[in-house]
Inverse folding.
C-alpha cells in the first residue's frame, strides 16, 4: 500500500489532501512545519510527498534537494497557493514530479498522484532487477541537487540514441557531460570525435567534416577521411554549434537525417552511423528568431537537452571540485598535495565565477604556482584581481541620498527581475491592506471588489501575513 506524506502548515489543506489519498486506499501522514516534515520523511519511507512552498520555518523548494538525497527518495508534488514561473522552473529542475496550485480540481490532484506512483513503481522495479548501474562520471565532480539532476539526464540520454544538446555558460563542463553521455552509452567502445565549430577554417569546413578526394583542390595531395566518417559507430560531438555557418547548416541537416554524405570530389556517397551530441553557450532559439540559425536543425538537435548549472548556483560543489583539481595539478607538478585555509575557501565561495569551473581551475593553478612549496593555500596566493573583486563586493554601500527613489550605486544595483519582484510584492501587499480596509474584512465583498476567488484571496493574505479579520 502506498504511503503519502503531506507537508503544509494549513491543516485544512492537509485534511482535504488526505481525503483525496485515502479514497484511493493509501496510507497518509501530515506534517505542519518544514522541520517536522523533513524529520518524518527521514524516519519513514514515503512513496509520494505533497509539499507546500511557503512554510512558516522555511521554503518548501529548499527541501527538494534534501528529500532527493533520502534512500529510495519519494516523488514530490509541489502544491502552492501562489504560483511563480521561477519557482516552477526551480521545482522541476530539482526533480519535482509536478507543480500544482492550491485550488486545483480533485481530478487533477488524483491523476498527478496516480501517475507519480506508477512511475515510482516502474523505477523501483528497474532498480530491484539490477537495471541501474553506476554512472561513469569522467571527471564530473560534485553532489549538489542541480548537478545530480544533470547526471540523471546523462543516464537517461545514454540509454538511447537520440541527439543530445548540452547547454550552459562558458566553462561549465559541456564537453565533460558530452563524454559522459558517450561513455555510458552502447557506443562507448567506439570513437568520440570532437569538432570545434568555432575553430573550423571557413575555407576548409566541408573537407574537414566530410573529407575529400586527392587533387580536388590545391594542397589536397592525398585523400582524407572527414571527421563525420571517423565518428562511424561512435559519437560526433559538435562543440559550440551556434558558431556553425548557415551555409553549412543545411548540408549538415541532410547528413543528420540520412547519415549519408559525399566527400568533396567523390562520385560516391559514404555512410556514417554516428550519434550526435552538440553543445553551445548561446541561446539557439533567439538565433533562430533572428534568422542566424536554422529552426529545422535546432528541432533535430534538441531531442534531449541537458542544461548545466553555473558554478555560482552549485557552490556546495566548490570545495570537492577544488580538492580534485588541486590534487591533479600538484601531481602534474610533482609536488605534495596542498591544504586549504578556511579563508581561502571562503574567498573562492564569495567570487561570482563568470568563467565557471574552467576559470576556477586556472585560478587554482595560479595559486599553486604562487604558493610553490608552501603546504597551505591562503587568500594571499589567489590572483590580485580576484581578491579585489571579492573585497569590493563585500563592501555594502547605501543607496544614494536623493529626493528621487530608486537610485543605487552601480555595485549595489539589484537585478532587474529582483527589483521588479520587490516592487510588485510591496504593491500587492498595499493593495491587499487597502482591500481589507475598504471591505471591512468582509471576504465576500473583498472577492467581489478584487475579482479573486476566496481560496486565492486567503492564500495571498497568508503569504503577506495579513489577518483576514481585523
Amino acid at each position: 500500500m502506498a504511503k503519502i506524506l503531506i507537508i503544509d502548515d494549513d491543516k485544512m489543506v492537509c485534511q482535504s489532501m488526505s481525503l483525496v489519498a485515502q479514497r484511493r486506499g493509501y496510507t497518509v501522514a501530515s506534517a505542519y512545519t518544514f522541520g517536522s516534515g523533513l524529520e518524518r520523511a527521514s524516519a519513514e519511507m514515503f512513496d509520494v510527498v505533497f509539499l507546500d512552498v511557503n512554510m512558516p520555518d522555511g521554503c518548501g523548494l529548499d527541501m527538494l534537494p534534501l528529500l532527493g538525497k533520502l534512500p529510495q527518495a519519494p516523488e514530490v508534488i509541489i502544491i502552492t497557493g501562489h504560483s511563480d514561473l521561477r519557482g516552477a522552473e526551480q521545482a522541476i529542475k530539482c526533480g519535482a514530479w509536478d507543480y500544482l496550485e492550491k485550488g486545483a480540481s480533485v481530478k487533477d490532484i488524483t491523476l498527478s498522484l496516480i501517475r507519480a506512483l506508477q512511475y515510482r513503481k516502474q523505477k523501483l522495479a528497474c532498480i530491484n532487477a539490477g537495471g541501474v548501474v553506476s554512472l561513469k562520471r569522467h571527471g564530473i565532480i560534485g553532489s549538489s541537487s542541480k548537478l545530480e539532476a544533470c547526471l540523471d539526464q546523462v543516464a537517461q540520454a545514454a540509454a538511447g540514441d537520440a541527439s543530445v544538446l548540452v547547454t550552459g555558460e562558458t566553462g561549465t563542463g559541456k564537453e565533460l557531460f558530452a563524454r559522459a553521455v558517450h561513455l555510458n552509452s552502447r557506443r562507448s567502445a567506439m570513437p568520440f570525435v570532437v569538432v570545434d565549430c568555432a575553430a573550423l577554417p571557413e575555407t576548409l569546413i566541408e573537407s574537414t567534416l566530410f573529407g575529400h578526394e586527392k587533387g580536388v583542390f590545391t594542397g589536397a595531395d592525398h585523400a582524407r577521411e572527414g571527421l563525420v566518417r571517423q565518428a562511424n559507430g561512435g559519437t560526433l560531438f559538435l562543440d559550440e554549434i551556434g558558431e556553425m555557418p548557415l551555409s553549412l547548416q543545411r548540408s549538415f541537416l541532410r547528413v543528420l537525417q540520412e547519415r549519408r554524405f559525399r566527400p568533396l570530389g567523390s562520385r560516391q556517397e559514404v555512410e556514417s552511423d554516428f550519434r550526435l551530441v552538440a553543445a553551445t553557450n548561446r541561446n539557439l532559439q533567439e538565433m533562430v528568431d533572428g534568422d542566424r540559425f536554422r529552426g529545422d536543425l535546432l528541432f533535430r538537435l534538441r531531442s534531449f537537452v541537458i542544461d548545466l548549472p553555473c558554478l555560482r548556483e552549485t557552490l556546495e560543489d566548490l570545495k570537492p571540485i577544488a580538492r580534485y583539481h588541486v590534487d591533479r595539478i600538484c601531481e602534474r607538478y610533482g609536488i605534495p598535495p596542498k591544504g586549504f585555509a578556511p579563508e581561502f575557501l571562503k574567498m573562492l565561495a564569495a567570487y561570482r565565477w563568470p568563467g565557471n569551473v574552467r576559470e576556477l581551475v586556472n585560478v587554482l593553478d595560479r595559486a599553486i604556482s604562487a604558493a610553490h612549496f608552501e603546504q597551505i593555500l591562503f587568500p594571499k596566493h589567489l590572483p590580485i584581481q580576484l581578491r579585489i573583486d571579492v573585497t569590493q563586493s563585500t563592501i555594502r554601500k547605501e543607496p544614494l541620498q536623493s529626493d528621487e527613489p530608486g537610485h543605487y550605486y552601480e555595485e549595489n544595483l539589484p537585478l532587474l527581475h529582483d527589483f521588479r519582484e520587490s516592487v510588485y510584492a510591496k504593491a500587492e501587499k498595499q493593495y491587499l491592506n487597502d482591500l481589507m480596509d475598504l471591505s471591512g474584512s468582509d471576504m465576500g465583498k473583498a472577492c467581489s471588489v478584487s475579482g479573486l476567488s476566496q481560496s486565492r484571496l486567503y492564500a495571498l493574505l497568508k503569504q503577506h501575513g495579513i489577518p483576514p479579520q481585523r
About this structure: Residues 289 and 295 are 8 Å apart (CA to CA). The radius of gyration is 28 Å. Confidence is low (pLDDT under 50) at residues 397-404. The longest strand covers residues 75-80.
